[in-house]
Amino acid sequence: MDVQAKLEILADAAKYDASCASSGTEQRDSRDGKGLGSTDPGMGICHSYAPDGRCISLLKILLTNACNYDCLYCINRASSNVPRARFTVSEAVRLTLDFYRRNYIEGLFLSSGIIRSPDYTMEQVVRVAQSLREDHHFRGYIHLKTIPDASDDLIAAAGKYADRLSINIEVPTETSLARLAPEKNVRAIRRTMGRLRLKLDETMDQSSGHRRAPPPRFAPAGQSTQMIIGADASNDRTILETSANLYGSYNLKRVYYSAFSPIPDASRALPPQAPPLVREHRLYQADWLMRFYGFDIGELTEPLEDGMLPLDIDPKLAWALRHRDRFPVDVNSASREQLLRVPGFGTRTVNSILAARRVTHLRAADLVRLHVPRKKALPFIVLADHRPAPAQLDSNRLLQMLRPRPAQLGFSF
Ligand code: SF4
Predict the structure, then answer these.
(1) Shortest CA distance to 7 belongs to which of 38, 55, 56, 45?
(2) CATH code for the domain defined by 3-293
(3) Could you tell me if residue 283 is left (phi over 0), alpha (psi between -120 and 50 degrees) or otherwise beta?
(4) Rg of the chain (C-alpha set)
(5) How far apart are CA 129 and CA 59, in angstroms?
(6) Which residues line ligand 1 (CB under 6 A)?
(7) How far is the centre of ligand 1, averaged over its atoms, from the C-alpha of 272 (Å)?
(8) pLDDT tier at 109 (50, 70, 90 boundaries)?
(9) 55-62 and 107-111 as β-strands: parallel, antiparallel, unpaired?
(10) Where are the domains of the chain?
């Protein structure tokens, strides 16, 4: 099979993994003449968005889509009737360099089905990154998927060459994992996450010390994971509890939520339909609110009997509508914590407000300059020239007024 045919299979097989946003890595450039690269769409290229909004293109491939395991939700499972392919290490390296030289990509996301053993598979993945860095002085971004229970030496080598490492938690609960991926073991996954955390912490401790020699490099963009949403019956509360536990225990940079997509010849243990994509979006919003806005899971999901976030409005607006007694908030005197809870106010907006009000009293017109959606924020805030009518905040119609209008999807012709 030629490399082009392999690429078709192995890029397609990799598209189900969402855990490849590239952010927070160290800065490198290629002005010394050894570097390459930038962006353009093409086969196997995914676009990831960093938190600052920067779009990064990665060549996203599997080293092989053959796999010993039979995870029911996975198109590459052992019992799946799909064509199989495998890149050699040198093919994967050459392909990455070719794409990079043509400015199609800024980096590589490399994962693999598990063949022979976790160590054998991990070693193959590491060899690609090693060759790119050491033989070809590749300065682009590298994200490697870590194989559960790979040896410490291989994990250390992966962290030496990769910017980010990830290992997928797969589904929100241990029971679901046992049912849907019987060969996988949540303890092995968590053990590997724990080892990654230890290495990351060690590197950070050494960097903050006053040593002459820099600490050994280890995955400067940290570790992340992916959770599939809607393949089991877990509600949003359970999903967010698992995420909070993962962030707390392993200091993850990100948990990626990937809406389950039905696969050909799927097991009856799986739902026949994908969950609404907006559910994935609401989970990302709730995840953000927990990490950067001071919300806890209970505030976002506890009053909801079924433990599901509303789909029609974002979780912060839903919380504000349930807690109208906490509003209106005076923008010119409220604390940072209070401002972060105002619908339509992001962290940057709040920073700008805190800076601006040292020298001025903010008025309604200033919201435009701060890019605040006025319709969403005004019922909840007091400004120098604005105070919402009490009747408006108490009105049953407020939800109706603030709920986004349903938008018609675009036609593809
Ligand atoms: S280990 Fe499971 S999820 Fe990973 S490639 Fe194999 S079957 Fe798919």
Answers:
(1) 45
(2) 3.20.20.70
(3) alpha
(4) 24
(5) 13
(6) 67, 69, 71, 74, 76-77, 113-114, 181
(7) 20
(8) very high
(9) parallel
(10) 3-293, 315-402
Write down the pLDDT at residue 131: 98
Distance of CA 388 from the midpoint of ligand 1 (Å): 54
- For atom 2 of ligand 1, the residue with the nearest CA is 71
Contacts of 310 (CB under 8 A, 6+ apart): 282, 304, 318
The residue to which tokens 């108490």 are assigned: 394
Tell me the pLDDT of the chain averaged across its residues: 87
pLDDT in tens, 270-285: 998 889 989 999 999 9
The stretch 389-401 carries a mean pLDDT of 84
Query: In terms of Cα–Cα distance, which of 344, 408, 351 is closest to 371?
Result: 344
Distances in Å between the Cα of 20 and the Cα atoms of 17, 221, 381 are: 7, 11, 38
| Tokens 């290495």 belong to residue | 199
Residue 297 has pLDDT above 80, yes or no: yes
What CA–CA distance (Å, rounded) separates 208 from 201? 11
Cα 318 from chain centre: 23
> From the CA of 408, how far away is ligand 1's center (Å)?
36
Whole-angstrom CA distances from 282 to 54, 221, 302, 318, 321 are 21, 25, 16, 11, 16
